[in-house]
């Protein structure tokens, strides 16, 4: 998994613009439930944004149940009335760029759950992906390199291993802003990275052994310093 397209500071505003354009297109074309949207390529050309930007916006609307993508077929307007759809999109567009404290709170609540579920549901393939992410993080830290993305990829692997697609989607939504804020506040300059290796290993061990209470506890310990640091921000 790569995060390159997720780390741009203006990504939040680009998504809102594309979502607004999609809403206008649906209204202009009088599209009804079940009608097909133009392809990502066509929307990219029409809106003058990259296909990856358009794809992220579509995925967000799909997450909220306003669009439905079918492999090999395309993207369709969901089975919801026009008035309700416009109202929901307006609510989405009014969502403010979340502050760092809110992101941290949300992330901790999610990850305490995903760690527990991952210990109960993880497959052999999940363990392999977790191990790869763990080693990538460890290598970067020991080499004195920035390991923010490797850190978050490890946590995304846990979310995936939880087997809960909604929690996984929530993580994918908040990860871009977390990366941006980590860089803004230089969180990983606080000497947490080396300790993070031990903490990541402890979380992995609990998940591997299938111990949900221990996995949740180790995740809670992992976030203790970050949570305290977050609330000491001026």
What does this structure look like?
The protein has 234 residues and is mainly α. The chain has two domains: 91 residues, Orthogonal Bundle (Arc Repressor Mutant, subunit A), CATH 1.10.10; 131 residues, Four Helix Bundle (Hemerythrin (Met), subunit A), CATH 1.20.120. 70% of the residues lie in helices and 3% in strands. It is built from ten helices and two strands; from the N terminus they run H-H-H-E-E-H-H-H-H-H-H-H. Strands 1-2 form a two-stranded antiparallel ribbon. A hairpin with a 3-residue loop joins strand 1 and strand 2. Helix 5 packs across helix 8, helix 6 runs antiparallel to helix 7 and helix 7 packs antiparallel against helix 8. The two termini are 34 Å apart. The N terminus is likely disordered.
Which sequence of SSEs, written as H and E, runs from N to C? HHHEEHHHHHHH
| CATH homology-level superfamily of the largest domain | GntR ligand-binding domain-like
Strand order of the largest sheet: 1-2
pLDDT average, as an integer? 85
Query: What would the CATH topology of the largest domain be?
Result: Four Helix Bundle (Hemerythrin (Met), subunit A)
Tell me the number of helical segments per DSSP (H or I, 4 or more residues long): 10
Number of beta-strand segments = 2
| CATH level-1 class of the largest domain | Mainly Alpha
- Main beta sheet: 2 strands, antiparallel
| Total tally of structural domains | 2
Classify the oligomer: single chain
CATH architecture of the largest domain: Up-down Bundle
